[in-house]
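Archive entry: two folds, one per protein. Generate the first.
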Amino acid sequence: MIFFDYLVEHNRYLNLVGIVGVLACAFFLSSHKKKINVRLTVSALLMHLVLAWCILKTMVGTWLLMQLSQVIEKLYQAADSGICFLFGNLAHADGSWGHIFAVKVLPVIIFFAALTSLLFHFGIIQWVSSMMARLVRPLLGTSGAETLCAVANSFLGQTEAPLLIKNYLAKMTRSEMFLVMVSGMGTLSAALLAVYAAKGVPVQHLLCASVIAVPATIFIAKMLEPETEEPETASAAKVVMEVPSRNMLDAIAIGTSDGLQLVLNIGAMLIAFIALIGALNTLLAWGCGWGNEFLVWLGSNWQLPILSLQYIFGYLFLPVGWLLGFTGSEMMQVSELIGTKFSINEMVAYMHMLEMPLSPRAIILSTYALCGFANFSSIGIQLGGIGVLAPSKRHLLSSLGFKALLGGTLANLFSAFVVGLLI
């Protein structure tokens, strides 16, 4: 009876339906249903559930998460000192000009890019990735190269993580390459995690989402594209990664330059996408206005709703908002956020989330559902980034692009449904 009451509270039973729905979707869209590795799928599924439970429901997991959150906060404070030196009073959000996104948020990416490059120079990132991969691979039976990339994607970007296995990309099987793509779509880089945390997204849940995304992307990818070949690194991957920097200062310079390019790209994309969305919404509203005038002329009492891109995608993803356990306007708002992330990117979706009057539970579950690069522009990013490292795989990358987008989205939604059962 207690368990039944727990499921009814916050409509958690719908989260169970959502979990089954994600698994059913991955199964029915699988390219080789009979080749699905049941052991791998069950093991990754259990790993996902155990990790989520340990992080969110145990004292040790909560303590570790709080410590990591404090580290992120301290790093942000360090980045803020550099921002204040360069921009002066503009960096103080309590001024009459308020919070300036280009001043307070984008420069953080440059700092974290430089820090990541420095850690990469000293081999710390490679070591952490290798240790985590050695723990994950024997449990799941995945190849060494794809496991290493999937793990690295939890804190590196979707074009940076494949650099760790660039010597293996050209010989990867279709299933391995698909996992590389899905793990890139279903995760975020550490730099952007810090940015979203600085904006006000719950940092504990951003970190948890980043960790549990690893097994989620693995079993979703292996259900959609099961392994039918023999991977070159089936037993283990001995990664030989050339460090591009010659010394510590060179590493900082390279990271800073890369971060600047990323900031310019993100800033330009935000300007273009938000402006184009505004233009499209204006056209939709104009069309609805003319349509309503025509209906009035016909003598009809029925009126068209004023459409917008968010409104349309909100209805398309309405079943997802319902399965997350929400009702009424909150269900519509969460659905709009997921649709915005899918069609544009997670940055715009998170910005909208922080502006909405959502409950704490809705903010938490939305954080998991949005925590990934799964959007249409990422298909082009992966084609450009991974395609340069493995030109012979460009045709495969293009053919798997939309399916990888689906895989990353399913992995994020699966994490949100699981967390909905636990909190």
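Generate the second and append.
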Amino acid sequence: MKKLMSLGIAMSLLWSCGDAPELEKIQEPNEVQQQDFTPISNDVLESAVIYEANIRQYSPEGTFEAFTKDIPQLKELGVKAIWLMPIYPISMKNRKATDDLSIEDIEDEKEREKYLGSYYAISDYTAINPEFGNMEDFEKLVETAHENGLYVILDWVANHTGWDHHWLDEHPEYYVKNKDGEITDPINTETGETWGWTDVAHLDYNNQNLREAMKNEMKFWVEEMNIDGFRCDVAGEVPTDFWEPTVAELREVKPLFMLAESEKKDLFHEAFDMGYNWEGHHIKNEIAQGKMKVSDWDDYMTKIDTTYQKDDYLMNFLTNHDENSWNGTIDERMGEAKWAMLGLVYTLPGMPLIYSGQEYDMDHRLKFFEKDEIPKEKSEMWPMLEKLGALKNTNKALHGAKESADYKRLTTSDDEHVLAFKREKEGDIVVFVANFTDEERSFSVDFEGDFTDFETGEEDFLHPKEEMTYPAWGYQILVK
């Protein structure tokens, strides 16, 4: 096997900023395309990439209309599902200005106006945040996605409402109360302390009428707005015995894709299709920072193999709205390791996520409670996501949903620092090999075969007796 160039060099040779491929103009979808649109299914999800859309920060306008114009482009990245961050009106009472302050703490009225609050402090589950447009604009977004063969899921916040929600006046019995009978913000049940989400009021699922009301709010978007599923915020904090009958009834309307922001395994028995790979993500961060080794990753993969059922799967990511705003950009957390980690995200079992701005090499933390904006110039990340998306969409060895391709760890002569594994399904094979350290390493892989290098298109050969040398954070994706 040839010596591997560092990814930075390879990227600069393959794609300079000026030479990044231009996207073809896509014609308006015709009626035939719209008729061909079919309900979401596991066949679609096996090869899907999911895109998290932060409407507020996606464009200067921060509107549905501006985002809808770009939906055809997302197909170029292999995206099949769009997850919209919460699109509902945000409560004014106790609205967050910063992580520690509410707008009531800001004396200057003009200063207050710039704080738009958290998307997750909802005042009305069946209305549209006027920041983004109106219901007709939302309908156009969904229609455009469907015309382009993409599916739309909504961010659903079942654990709490904003303090302006009409239930607080009409149904105070829907909420958790303290010993003095006062409605509380969400409390950590293990420590008894607040999570710090002071802009929201905690819902009480011991109340059966709340369960019925919440189900009906969700049903509105399925029946009336034709959405294709939900990403459910802190899903593990809401009882599983609420989710299971609720999702079953919603699926009587149409097939749905359900994503849980959780790794709680019982959620995936009946209610949810996919969960978050939070633990795996944190290990990737730690490896990139030299705090963990590949052996820690192997231990984790063994753990999830024994924790979950065969048809459970997780979402893999380098970033999302929480990571970017609160824990740092990809470059801050992963540095030079980011390209190898991106390759890992796309070759693991599960579904890869792209967060708004990632495709444009976003290098700043988006403000969470104020208007901000992602960059819109294609550089290194866009063409790489385009290539990875095409591979994910077309190679059965990267199937990652309920009928996922097999994952087999390949032995190397340096398993503490080098990760190598094989994915295989119906004759397709993909091999991932990476030096997950910040120094050059030589090693061999106990596997044999002829392959094509995913990035260069060159033929390559793996042999267990051949030593190869990878630079710091060097990696290859080999396809057969």
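Annotation attached to the second fold: Residues 31 and 147 are 8 Å apart (CA to CA). Residues 40-405 form a domain with the TIM Barrel fold (CATH 3.20.20.80).
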